Amino acid sequence: MDSRHELEHEKMESAKDKVIGAISETMDLYGLTRSAGKLYATMYFEDEMTLDEMRQELSMSKPSMSTSVRKLQEIEMVKKVFRRGSRKDVYVAEKNFFRSFMVFYCQMWDREVKMNMEAIHQAQKELSELIEDTNTSKETRQEAQEHYDLLERSKTYYLWLEKLVASIRNEEIFEFLPKPDQNELNHKNS
Amino acid sequence: MDSRHELEHEKMESAKDKVIGAISETMDLYGLTRSAGKLYATMYFEDEMTLDEMRQELSMSKPSMSTSVRKLQEIEMVKKVFRRGSRKDVYVAEKNFFRSFMVFYCQMWDREVKMNMEAIHQAQKELSELIEDTNTSKETRQEAQEHYDLLERSKTYYLWLEKLVASIRNEEIFEFLPKPDQNELNHKNS
DNA sequence: AAAAACGTTAAGAATTTATTTAATAAATTT
DNA sequence: AAATTTATTAAATAAATTCTTAACGTTTTT
């Protein structure tokens, strides 16, 4: 009876491990280390976890769990929740991948747009000075102009990326690309 | 006259460096190292470059350039081009950020969907066996069912991601979110 | 108030990743 | 064919990251 139960448990773990492996392997896309990915994937199958439970489950140190969990919180893949009774901190994984997608990419793309637009702005200012300075040699002026135009054209992309972020935040993107409903799943299940 | 030219050059480099810095800093999003990012950003301002020019420009070794360039080629941010006359390999940077966006994210998201869908499929098979086995204990069966359902729901996301990739590949996404034209840029230029 | 539990920080060890130098292979020129 | 040029591979070194143990500060319990 006990070995029976043991067997069930093993099979369940084996099933979970397949998904945990895949998730943590693709987590590099989100700038996470393998262990942080594994931690998230583990939490994905649990209601909630404390640091000690994580440490035990992954056989790693508590500070390790602490830092991984913080990184996961930064991209909102994990939230701290309040549980009266337990004085340990309790964490839950975000199980809605749509939300994870939104938070992560909006965060990243915003950063990309902001940083690069700022740099472009500054660079263009300097290039303009070169172009407008009558002492500038002909060759230099031409090169400056070419770089200026290249940067100017690139703004199109950043502007577009900004609009993409907005359409994700306000969920308009789901009008263009609806979330599939459960029925659409089956014919994928061959 | 010569110091004049020196000054122009310095200002040009300073302008470029602002953008190069910003690009290489945001390149971590694309899983590139700082140096690979810097290399790409440097090439962005050049028509074409040989390994030796890269090495000189970044003051790094040639094997280093070789590996960075290969990584950049993998995500199609750099292409090798044929130039008769020169027997060195000649590379050019992809300057169209839209294309870089498409290639990179489609590649990554495809990988994510493929890996995870496959894992889900296998895991669900095992979970089904547990659920259908009449010897399985009640608690185990319930847990297996919960995990099964969780995985089933997650497919919605992967299916959506797949559609997103498709709409990027066939450019339908630009009907929903048009690329801004040059005119729209100016009011951003405050 | 003392002791215990908890999470985090700090410091050091271990592993991994990136970079360089040296060696090799392939191609081109003389 | 020998010598030179070019890119890549291999081995060694350097640098950066990740992880652990130990120490700290805070909160809670007794």
TrEMBL record, chains A, B:
GO molecular function, one term: DNA binding
Keywords annotated in UniProt: DNA-binding, Transcription, Transcription regulation
InterPro entries: HTH-GbsR_regulator, MJ1563, WH-like_DNA-bd_sf, WH_DNA-bd_sf
Keyword Transcription set for record: yes
Gene3D superfamilies: Winged helix-like DNA-binding domain superfamily/Winged helix DNA-binding domain
Family note: Belongs to the GbsR family.
Stated name of the protein: HTH-type transcriptional regulator
